[in-house]
Amino acid sequence: MRNKKLFYIVTTIPLSLNFFRGQLAYLSNNFEIVAISSDRDALEKFGETEGIETHCIPMVRSISLLHDFKSLIKIISFFRKNKPDIVHGNTPKGSFLSMIAAKLTGVPVRIYMCHGLRYQGYSGFMRSVLKMMERISCYCSTEVLCVSNGVKAILITDRICRVAKLKVVGNGSSNGIDVTKFDRKMISAEVLSSVADLDDKFVFGFAGRIVKDKGINELVSAFKRITDLYHDMILILIGPFEDDNPIEENTKTEIDLNPYIHYWGNQKDVRPFMCASDVFILPSYREGFGMVLMEAGALGVPCITTNITGCNEIIQDGVNGKIIPPRDENALYEVMKWFYEHRNDEVKKMAERARPMIVERYEQHKVWEALLAEYQLLSK
C-alpha cells in the first residue's frame, strides 16, 4: 500500500512541464508525483531536476487521429495498471488525452488546468475542432483550474464548461514567480552592460515568440513611427522567429535593418534584457496569463500590454503599466510615445509600484501553498 497518493501530471511535451518547475518537487513532499510526457531524454532530465519519477508516452502536438489514438490507448493502459489517485492534465492535447483516459479508467480526481484557449487563434473548422476538444476535456474532468479569471470567464461565455467545475486558485497563475530570482539586485552591472550600449537611451523591451499573435507587426511599426520623432530610444527583441503564425515580411526586414532595433534571438536568461528596459511591452492578441509580465514587474519594470485574458489582471492601468486594445497600432504608438515623454515622472512612479504588486499577488511559495491546499482538499 502506498504511503502517499499517486499524482500523475501530463503534458504533451516536456517543455510544458516548465510551467511547474520547482512546484513538483514541493508537491512531492505530500504526493507521489509522476510526470508523463513525450521525448524520453528531456523528460528524464526534468524528472532528475525535480526529484520525481517520469514515464514516457509518445504524443504529438498537432491533431493526428492515428497518433492520438495510439497515445490514448497507451495512457489508458498505464492508468489501468497503476491506478493513480489524481491525474492533472495540461496543454490542449495533454489534457484532452489524459482526461479521457482518466475518466474511462475511473480515476477519482481528474484536474484539467486550463492555461489558455488555443481555439481563440483559429477560425472555421479548426476552431470548432479545438473548441470540441476543450469541451471534452472539461466534461471528463472533476475540476477545471483556470490560470486566470479571464480564462474562467471565457469558458463560461463560450459555454465550454459548467460553472460549478471552474475555479481560480488565489490570484491565478500555474506556478507564481520566484521573486528571489527575478530581483534586480541579482543582476550585476557587468551583465547589464554586456546587453548593449544603452547609455542615455530609452529602452522598450519584448521577450517571447516573434510571431503575429504576439503583436510584433504592430510593435515594430509603432516603434518605427516613434523613431521618426525621437532618436534616443532602442527596441530590444528577445525570442525565436517561428514559421507557424509568422510575422509579415516587411516587419522582419525592419527588424533586420533598423539600427534602433536590437534583436538578440533566443536567450536562456531574459532578466538582464528586462532590467535594461525602461518599459516592457507585450502587445499580444491572446494569452492564458502572460508570465513575462510578472517577470518584468518583479524586476521593477512597468509594462504596456493589451486588454486580454490574464494580462489585464497582472497589469492595472495607470498603476504598474498601461493597457491598450489588442491589434491597435495607433493605440500602441500613442502609449509608447506617452511613456517616453513621461519617463522622468509618472513612469518612474509606475516602476516603483511594479515589484511590490507582483510580490504581493504572485510570490511563488504563496501560489504553491494555495495549490497544495486545493489538491489535498480534492483528494480527501
TrEMBL record:
The molecular function terms of the Gene Ontology recorded here are:
glycosyltransferase activity
Q: Where is the Glycosyltransferase subfamily 4-like N-terminal domain?
A: 30-172
Q: Which residues are in the Glycosyl transferase family domain?
A: 199-355
Kindly give the InterPro entries that the UniProt entry links to this protein. Glyco_trans_1, Glyco_trans_4-like_N
Task: Return the CDD domains for the record.
Answer: GT4_CapM-like (cd03808)
- Assigned EC number: 2.4.-.-
Question: What does UniProt list as this organism's lineage?
Answer: Bacteria, Pseudomonadati, Bacteroidota, Bacteroidia, Bacteroidales
Q: Name one Pfam family in it.
A: Glyco_transf_4
Supply the alphabetized keyword list.
Glycosyltransferase, Transferase
- This chain belongs to which protein, by name? Glycosyltransferase, group 1 family protein
SUPFAM superfamilies cross-referenced by the UniProt entry: UDP-Glycosyltransferase/glycogen phosphorylase
